[in-house]
Amino acid sequence: MNKTSFNQVVKPARVRIEASTICQLKCPSCPNAAGEIHKNIGAGFLQYEDFKKIIGDNVWIRDVELSNWGEIFLNPDLLKIIKYAHERTIVLRADNGVNLNTASDEVLEALANYRFNSITCSIDGACQKTYSIYRRKGNFEKVIENVERINHYKSKYKSEYPILTWQFVAFDHNSHEIGTARKMAANLKMNFVLKLSWDDLYTQSFSPVTDKDLIGKETGLGVSSREEYVEKTGKEYIDESCLHLWKQPQINFDGRVLGCSCNYRGDFGNIFNEGLVECLNNEKINYARDMLLGMRESRDDIPCTDCKLYESRKRRSAWVKDMYGKKQEKKKMRGYDSTKLLKRLLAAAKRRMRRGYLWEGLRADFDRFLWHRVATRLKLKRSLTSRVYPLRIPLPAAEEDGWKPYPLFNMTTSSMKNLSCHASVLNGNRSPHLPHAHDEEEILMLLWGEVDLILPDRRGPAVNQRIHLEQGEFVYYPACFAHTLQTTSETPANYLMFRWQSGRTTNKSPLAFRHFSLFESNNGSKIKDGFCSRLVFEGPTAYLRKLHCHTSTLTPGAGYEPHRDDYDVAIIVLEGTVKTLGRDVGPYSVIFYRAGEPHGMRNTGKSIAHYVVFEFHR
Ligand code: SF4
Ligand code: SF4
Questions:
Q1: Backbone dihedral region of 289: left (phi > 0), alpha (psi from -120 to 50 degrees) or beta?
Q2: SS3 call for 182
Q3: Are 121 and 190 within 8 A, CB to CB?
Q4: Helix ranges (DSSP H) in 262-336
Q5: Mutate to test the pocket of ligand 1, among 20, 21, 22, 25 (most ligand atoms within 8 A of CB)
Q6: What is the pLDDT of residues 18-32, one digit of tens each?
Q7: 174-205: per-residue pLDDT in tens?
Q8: Cis peptide preceding 162, ω within 30 of 0
Q9: Ligand 2 centre distance from Cα of residue 262 (Å)
Q10: Which of 196, 347, 511, 515 is most exposed by smallest CB count within 10 Å?
Q11: pTM for this structure?
Q12: Is 33 in the pocket of ligand 1 (CB under 6 A)?
């Protein structure tokens, strides 16, 4: 396989798959309306079976942009595509733009119900008369009505998705309505973006702005056209489109790889014949990348050769290397991308502020990201030590968002890179998040209420993707196993979650997803000398030589003297009271014993004490 000039195989988690090259409108500057798109890349829709195949064959894809040259809502398979993506935890977007003139109520409902991530609606006017000057054949009232329907379903499903953006392309004929449109967008709970027009990028220019100061001010760019933008910044307005070749390649509805969202002049192979990774790394696409890096002359069979953006790059000697290579070098030197990290931290802070656990979250982030980096560099050690974490169940119902996590700890341990534990309260009929998969392994134990686990990765005709969980039941999630849960009881559910990661011992966890009940496992156990113990399960995982679980019972007064284990241990008291690490510990509290630290235990209550033990052997 060819590698790019950065010596990397291109295999991005984000791709663009055209859901439709067909559009019902006739916008004057659009190459689709001019017939160019159908002539060059065909008129058609992404089929559900093809979408499934792309996702199934390329499991590393996590994020798909569906919109580009046509209107996605005309695609008859859209509902099935949205549903399937949701089941596979794939993020879907339509941020390149939709006109939203024609959409069934079923699809609008699915957008909210299946958490379609974001939609950018092209609405260049605040009334039918102005809107239809550019969006010819478009119906302004219908678009607004469809936005309102989406908002209705967002409230119904208590979903913040899809995030809606009103995109207003600035022309001369609509500049007087920018203010009104901005207000309407706010009333419709939409973001508002004022965009410069394509000018003559694809076909002819239309209604060029005359009030340049107004547009310069309203866009915040200080310019009113793409030409002025290049003069002022030395960059094209859509300069970053070329990066799609590396970061977010465009695939046509029929499987042809177009590379970027601007190209309709030729392709780089068909993924259904040659495979996606092969198409993204063949000689032709790498030649195109080298052209954009300014390392090779243009070639007739490369679509970029006839692109106005490429001509502009060539004229200005503004090669991709200048904006991508340096960043790449910096990232390589630092070993991480600080901009991305900062963005993620800010987004997480916002989310946590909404959910009311900002400080706990920041502390957890510090422990996870920064402390680990600092400690590794300075060869310092600050990891989880033996401690009791009291917990009172049931936790108060979550006020906002219907979910509130209570972080207990999140640190390195003597044997694991990271071990965290949190208790969560989840109100009736709520899920904490969409099904997600991650590198860490987890144990989820239900302490209160009832939930359904939703497990898209469990497959097969006899396998139900939902598992009902009652108090005292728990599950083990191997790494990269998609999951979420939903409360089915009227009372809020409370659960504990242990999550860990370390250097892998194998690529796949030998211990598969498992579901256990603590009460079943304790049936028939015999107490001897005030103590009995029963194995629940044990086995190797991707990060642990052995993950072991047993339950123990102590009669009043019984216990054991302090001793040391050579593995980390987490205990959850299920009933009764025990004394350990110098304090009395009641039901649902969590105890952590660090490997090598002494600990003993005694039942100091008047009734039997019952607890579950997890051992993390490295
Ligand atoms: S709505 Fe979009 S795709 Fe359709 S004609 Fe207008 S610009 Fe082209
Ligand atoms: S030069 Fe044009 S066709 Fe080539 S990647 Fe850039 S935008 Fe796309």
A1: alpha
A2: helix
A3: yes
A4: 271-274, 276-280, 283-292, 308-316, 320, 326-334
A5: 25
A6: 999 999 999 998 999
A7: 999 999 999 999 999 999 999 998 877 777 78
A8: yes
A9: 6
A10: 347
A11: 0.59
A12: yes
